[in-house]
Model the fold of this input.
Amino acid sequence: MKTKSAAYLTIFLGWLIPGLGHIFQKKYWRGIIFFTCISLMALLGIIMGGKIYSFQTENPLTILAFLSDLGNGLFFILSKKFAFGIGNLKNVTFEIGTAYLAGAGLLNYLVALDAFDIASGRKK
Done:
């Protein structure tokens, strides 16, 4: 599975759902562990009242927050369709929840890149 198209499909699947790029390559345990950890991190962020940012140009920091939240893949897309992750500033845990969501997105980028490296033959 060291073709370029398979590697690009792997990184897309890994971005869309955490760990799916590894599962696609038959690295089941690694994929399941990544899916569980990153999904729980994102879920905890939502439970804590964190915010998933949309693209906004007023403040450069919100662009960075958007890019990190975009790393959540399908979770990000569903949050825009079903309006969850709006954030609740009244919650004491708002900032921590927002950080969990951003951290989950950034970790998912790294996991998808790991799956890409495996698929392209750079890593075992």
Summary: Residues 4-119 form one domain.
